[in-house]
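Hi R.,

Here's the chain you asked about this morning:
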Amino acid sequence: MKIDLTDTTAGEINKALVQGRRAIGTPAVGMVLTLVIVTDEENAYDALKAANDASREHPSRTLVVIKRISRTPRDRTHSRLDAEVRVGAEAGTGETVILRLYGEVSQHADSVVLPLLLPDAPVVVWWPVNAPLDPAKDPLGALAQRRVTDTYTAEEPVRELTARADAYTPGDTDLSWTRITPWRSMLAAALDQVDCRVQAVEVEGEAFNPSCELLAMWLADRLDVPVRRSPSAGPGLTGVRMDTTCGPITLDRADGSLATLSIKGQPARAVALKRRDTAELIAEELRRLDPDDTYASALRYGVDRLNTVPEQEASASTPEAASSSASDTASASPDGARSAAAEAAKAPAKKATSSRAAKKAPSRKASAK
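And the predicted structure, written out as tokens:
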């Protein structure tokens, strides 16, 4: 069932929701959370489709906030709220309200969303595109216990990770981190099968892919070893190689769906690591609404600390430099000593010559007399 409302209010939208539930014969509210999607008109369809698919696992009230840009100065001063209420089969297993905000009301979206939130239920805010730099300080983000962004859609994803680390607040998460959950599980299971120590790690993947950077930072933070980031043709993550004291452990995925896990001394095995769609990622994030401390630790590790030189090599290079500088000083010191000795030998000779001339002067004066 679909109900269209033009130039409406939050109270009229609530009445339409009750009317729709009664019309389809389900007056009781059986939803577990409120999902707020902040997007534009271009990405609203894909985001709403992913939310409807995820609602089969998490029945929720979905509020889609679309801020429309007014073209003329007169339209900017005139505020208007249009709504589209969907209940029943068109809204998945929950309820959907599409809010289109015009004029000044678009700057106060939190005042429109607040009366529509489910009482005594958690709130999740998701920005598919154009997420704020500090989601927790956003007016809509302040209403939520969980804030979901996606740095993959940013213009500079790697630099966006640094901004996310600086503005991190417990409850923030990113779909780029959710995409590597199967990789983290598989790598952890591979290390559980061997009794050895990891010495170095290499992560291969597409350039400017934040998921590759997050996986590298997670490995560097947890294993405390140097991690090298290598670009590849993709798609997405293509491989991880861990050099251990027992031999290399590799996890390669060239086609984006099937990976190969190789451990020294064991036969290679095929592992399903397909690239998941947005609906699966959102469903995974809605399963856990508490702060993700592992994500926070990996994010704060820092992209700049990747591709670092091991401390053993740095310490080995220092004595070489010191010995070379000492040898240069030793080779240069004899020449300096010889030149100083020559100058010192010349100085007394000049002094003696001047004294002889002073002694001869009186004899000449006497002969003149």
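The mean pLDDT is 81.

Let me know if you need anything else.
M.
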